[in-house]
Amino acid sequence: MRASIRRVLDALARLLGAAPDPWARLDAEAPLTAFGPGARRDFAWYLTGESTVRVRTGSEVRDWLLGCEYVRDEHQFADGDVWQHPCDFERGRRGDCEDHALWAWRKFIELGYDAELIVGRCAAVEALGRHAWVVVRLGDVQYLVEATARSPDGMIRPLDQLRGEYVPECGVGPDLRPVLYAGVLRAAAGSRDRGPVHPDR
Hints:
Elements: H1 2-16, E1 25-29, H2 58-66, E2 69-70, H3 73-76, H4 86-92, E3 94-95, H5 97-110, E4 114-122, E5 131-138, E6 141-145, H6 152-155, E7 156-158, E8 166-172, E9 178-181, H7 183-188
Parallel strand pairs: 2-3
Antiparallel strand pairs: 1-9, 4-5, 4-8, 5-6, 6-7, 8-9
Helix pairs in contact: 2-5, 4-5
């Protein structure tokens, strides 16, 4: 299945020629496999269970995440890529970018925000492979939540300041409908734009 998806994306990338804005949504639903091998559960599952962390604001989400430790899956689990349930992440407060981002995504949804979990590429962590982050919409302004940032100022920033550093491939919002972004075409074509290094890394 993955090989056939890759062939379709390769063909689309060749047909389109010049790459479109990677942040443009494609009119296609993303298969769960597009999010990576750790995405083994329907996204509704990550919203289940009783959270033990109470937050009332986006600043409290940020502050709680600043107390968490970034640990790559191969150092924490023997099972390759693992997406922890947010309640499990709360207990250990350790995990990789997907774990941090899934927890933030859930918390922003619980607070009533239009929040989207996104998987794609980030110039600052390109050598590590794909990356996960959250985009929160407040009126006409979108904010990128870099849930693994180590400073308060680096965690929640206007998306317009960071568009060139992040290339989304797929995402899922509060409606739980997975979508594809045009950034997936860039990945399919093998192109890797290397932007400036994120100052908080």
